[in-house]
Amino acid sequence: MSTVGEFPSLHFPPDSIRASREESSAKAAFLPHNETVWKRAKEAWYEHGLGAVLSELVNSRAEVPGWLGWSSSAGLAVVRWLGSLHGSLFPHLALSNEDMIATFAENADWYHSAIRAFCWHPHIHKFAVALRDNSIKVYSRTSKIVPLLKHKVQKGVSALAWEPQCASVLAVGCQNCVLIWHVDPMSLSSRPSTTTCQVLSRPGHSPITCLAWSPHGKLLASASPADTAMMIWSASTETGVPLRRVGGGGVSLLRWSPDGNKLFAATPSSLLRVWETETWTCERWTNLAGRCQSSCWSPDGAVLLFTVADEPVIYSITFPRDADVVTSVKAGSKSAVVCVDVSQVAVEVGEEVLNVGGSVHSMVWDPTGERLAVMFTADPEKGTTSQLIALFRTRLHPVLEIMPCGFIRGEPGVSPELISFQESFESGALLAVCWSNGKLSFIPLMFVPSDDVNRIPRNGFGNGTVFTGQMFSQQ
């Protein structure tokens, strides 16, 4: 059984972790300048695509045939014109790679956060944290050794994902690629060799802002807001298949359903899709008020919750529980339904009054389907704070019920930046919170499952008994 005491109290002071040097400036310092134009063009292709290749050829006219320099200049003009046209429809494409990561990463303050990404292993008591210096640390209940993962292409880390059916495989979403680390849990080394790491990349598929493993662990999905195709990788063969659909301007968010039958894919525009994973067909939901900001599946894969940027509501889409795999997606709700209003409210916290609510930044549903944690976006103009995490009590049967039950607050002036439920906690739910001061805390939520409430005797704090104590105690 997992308990809170099995996990260390961690603190990564932001001032002690320096951001790594930008890739472009580092290259200028160390890259030999006697490389051939063809080698530079090849590197530009792998890192930034066709436009970068044409730009390199135009800037190196003295080293290429005249006809190639002229045609490259004309081609670059066409690419830039098409890019400006595309950018007018999808403004996020004008962002730099780092700005795009900061906009679409799960972390609420990716630029300044000491902890940029966090991920529990689904079945084993271990987790990984990605730090601002692009290093990754792996903590385990069964070992005092903390592996430190570093790689020369491990830049702009924004997402982590453990393979569900393996104790040692960790996927890392980076600025230009996906890394697959093989971290042997029996190894005594604290610095695994880069030879244990696979590099998965595809021209144009960057930066990576989201990863999702299929529950059976055979497939890995990766998303980039700059690529209209999401990639489905087979890590064992190091091959990938792009799944592309017209519209949306990219793919910004992925969530694989727990039953493995559906894959949710959001775009940077007001369009989202749910893929059926047997025939790889999809259904679309359009005309949202904005881009999808966050989403999560119910444990049975029958309910999808999602939020839209700058809207104080949580939407739901339901899918039939008894439908077969192929028809389950098409049989889903034809329109999203508002299930929770999280508009701004005033909350008394000690002697303070805080305005909480509004736009949702991220939300997570615990594996029992009993608790939903919601993290908000601060809005100085409206006076709302992001310091509080809202907790909701949820039930899936006979109908979906979502009811507020309390708040979680850290130290004064500190805001949450990442939240994640452990999937293997057996005594309720365990919420990991990464705070803006670099601290990582584990918050246990002890409760009786709703299905067991009616089995509790009435001569105690059971069904029909009113509890008059405080819900929260102040330390």
From TrEMBL:
Under SMART domains, the record lists: WD40
Q: Which residues cross the membrane?
A: none
Q: Which residue numbers delimit the Aladin seven-bladed propeller domain?
A: 96-446
Highest taxon listed in the record's lineage: Eukaryota
- Name this protein carries in UniProt: Aladin-like
Query: What's an example Gene Ontology biological process for this entry?
Result: nucleocytoplasmic transport
One GO term describing the cellular component: nuclear pore
**Which residue spans adopt a coiled-coil conformation according to this UniProt entry?**
none
Q: What lineage is this protein's organism placed in?
A: Eukaryota, Metazoa, Chordata, Cephalochordata, Leptocardii
